[in-house]
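Sharing a chain and its predicted structure for anyone who wants a worked example. Both blocks are below, sequence first, tokens second.
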Amino acid sequence: MEKSNYKDSMFRMLYLDRKELLSLYNAVNGTHYTNAEELEINTLRNAIYMNIKNDVSFLFNFQVNLYEQQSTVNPNMPLRDLFYVADLLQNYVRDLDLYGRGLVKIPAPRFIVFYNGKEKQPERRVYKLSDAFSKKQDEPELELIVTVLNINAGNNAELLGKCKTLREYMQYIERVRGYAAQMPIAEAVERTITECIKEGILEDFLKQNRAEAIKVSIYEYNEELHLATVRREGYEDGLVDGLERGISQGIVQGITQGITQGITQSILAVLEELGDVSDELRTLIVQQTDEETLRKWLRIAARSETVEAFEMGILKK
């Protein structure tokens, strides 16, 4: 297996193995190919644009397939993939004559994202490049479609049932997240890997790549946590700043109730990213009508790593 570095992902490490990647391809496409040697991995090693990378890119069956795992919702994937696939295809036709009379054939591109974040998402969704166009077009002359498959528990059971590695990858991720809520991330990863090896979950991979798996798992978890915190703080700051400016300009005079409802919904949205919100906690938040208290709770939510931490924070005397 190709050597990884700490900024790689577990997903990418797993699917640098052609046999595993072919298994994933078959599961996604409902096919039964067996010759992994026909699959050509062509993932670009370096950032293409503003640190944009792709987890796995490969040529197979006259297609260029771009697979990526994400723990955050990103509707900008079509634009990111456009930059990436343009670079891939430029490499592909480098020695071909684009100015001749003959049509240069290229592999058909396919774009898949495997989503395993905490935010609730549909089992399957589609992002289109044309959704980002400032001026809508009935028939866009440039289009790129990205299919997002939710691989969290309870979603796409058929896909996970067909691909053992993908199923076990999610079991590993879920266990790391569960332990990380109770102990330091390094300890959580060590415990998860030890248990998974004993239970036959990604057993061979983890035995062969234990040290690298520890590094990338800690990096991925911390990056995910950091991005979630940045999004929450940015959302909070933008909301509060916008409301205050609106009030000062007289735009939202007389709608105090609307302001408190907006902050309430913001608190609930932040907490739902962190985990399940109990009916009791939801009722407590919804019934709170004091704007100053709600603003304080929103700031506590932005700093919290779990729903339980938030609840403890607001119940302190």
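Comments welcome. The CA atoms of residues 44 and 88 lie 8 Å apart.
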